[in-house]
Amino acid sequence: MKRSEILQRVGIVPPPAARIRLIVDTDAKNEADDQFAIMHHLLTPMFDVEGIVAAHFEQKAGYAGHSMEDSYREIEKLLSLAQIDDVPFFRGCPSPLRSVQDAPDSEGARFIIRQARLPGKLYIAVQGAMTNVAAALNAAPDIAGNVVVLWNGGGPYPAGRPEFNVMQDPDAVRAVLASPAEVWQTDQSVYCTLEVTLAELKRQVYPCGALGRYLYEQLEEENHREYNPNFLLRSGENWVLGDNTTAAVLLMNRYRGNWRMERAPQLKEDLTYGPNPQGKLLRVYGSIDVRLTLEDFYAKLSLAYGGGK
Q1: Is residue 309's pLDDT more than 70?
Q2: What b/e readout covers 258-282, taking b as 16+ CB neighbours within 10 angstroms?
Q3: End-to-end alpha carbon distance in the chain
Q4: Across residues 264-277, what is the average pLDDT?
């Protein structure tokens, strides 16, 4: 089924001038929230989702060269459950950059380059390691002026701290921050506010067909498998749908004043921030509208697949 047929169920037709060309770059099998974010982008009519690129998460314990392939297979499974067969998806780089200048080849990086050379701004929703975007920018510096990188990651300002997405490939972050590409950042202190409970998801997501059941059940399984009382992000009955920030920053109005400009920091070896007076300016979000973001996702999922209340 075409994505446009699913969007007809949502029933929202945005003005043509509001449409945004977008690529989703995702470590889809890393945890359990990327799947929610992928669907949020696919169910948003003003997003022209050109394709999805699989990202690795090799720095997570227990992976040895297959995490990107796991992400690729998860994207494939999710699109099948969503009954969408016309959105292309690609394998990205299987491992971190070897240096800040590294430009490894992958079908995902080539896809990013092709799309970025087409007319109009290209937004790239980065929901994991920055590797694929950095590889594309290093291989084709000419695309930097035509992309906006929606970066879901990094520690909070001013000092920063080690953060999962940065840990996956610090050199890729350094490469993107050093490039002329525009970056909108939602750091850990912001994305962790997209907090939900399992009860909320069971009521709002689980009833939405085979897709809704899968979204809920894979998250519930992950919660049991990965729960660690020393991991402060989890209480046992909650989860953070942090990757949905890359949809949120495009859905919110621009009068809110909820972002500021910061100089791109120096990313130190311990993954904290150092001063960089010559760094380019980043758009750094200080908050997002959690209600708008979650309710928008629940509504679209229910309209497209039925069942939510």
Answers
A1: no
A2: ebeebbbbbbeeebbbeeeeeebeb
A3: 25
A4: 97
Which single residue is written with the structure tokens 């998460």? 57
Tokens read off for 136: 């594309």
* DSSP H stretches of helix in 158-282: 164-167, 170-178, 188-191, 198-204, 209-226, 245-251
Edge-first strand order for the sheet with 89-91 is 89-91, 47-54, 20-26, 122-126, 147-152, 182-186, 281-285, 259-263
Residue 216 and residue 109: Cα distance in Å, rounded?
Answer: 31
Burial (Cβ within 10 Å: 0-12, 13-18, ≥19) of residue 179: buried
- 6 CB neighbour count, 10 Å cutoff: 19
Domains annotated for the chain, with CATH where assigned, are: 3-305 (3.90.245.10)
pLDDT over 80 (residue 232): no
Q: Kindly write down the DSSP assignment for every residue of 248-285, as one continuous string.
A: HHHHS-TTS--EEEEEPPEE-TTS-EE--TTPPEEEEE
| Predicted pLDDT at 226 | 78
- For 149, phi then psi, to 5°, come to -95, 115
Contact criterion met (CB below 8 Å) for 136 and 143: yes
Token reading at 279: 């760094």
Looking at residue 216, its amino acid is Y
